[in-house]
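for the writeup, i need someone to sanity check this before i put it in the appendix. the sequnce is what the collaborator sent (i think, or maybe the updated version? ugh). structure was predicted straight from it, no edits. if anything looks off just tell me and ill rerun, i have time this weekend
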Amino acid sequence: MSENEQMETRLYGRYWDDGVLDLISGAALVLVGVLWSFDMAFLIGLMTIWPVFWFPLRRASAEPRAGYVEFSHQRKRRNLEGLIAGYIVFTAMALLAVGGGAHLYKTQGGDFVASFINGVPGVLASILALFATWITMARRFYVYTATLVISGLVTGLVQWEPEVPFLCAGVVVLAMGAMHLHHFIRDADAFEQAQQ
């Protein structure tokens, strides 16, 4: 790896330290949980437009302090490939979960499937958090992944409602995002004042 590639990799890893992606992701998770709790889960598909909010929020909060970065074509291609792979794996896992659930329902009965089904959506959502970790190189997304998995498993075992993992993880992600954004703004403003 050349010196430029190493520098880009370090810069790319720091690019996500502002917490904006966390705030958007946490808000999306909470919104999914709220929609689910009001029996409006059919609107969850609207989350596909949620990333649109990331750009203006980042432009308003991070870019005035850190500037705009244009990454290499290779980095952009890797990100696109990661997003496509994430979509394919998530879709395959969702189809497998639905197919497996239907098979278990037929062979084991509805009571068996009902004993764990409420936790499945949270565990499936953890796949997206894992891909976010891989794409952003931000280790804190492992915490978000673990929060979704653990809260999904507990939800299935305790028979809580399916929105619980989303609400739990959403609050964790929002809190960490707010903390990261606060530290980012504080440090950037301190750096700017030191330069004057």
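The mean pLDDT is 81. The chain is about 80% helix and 0% strand.
thx in advance!!
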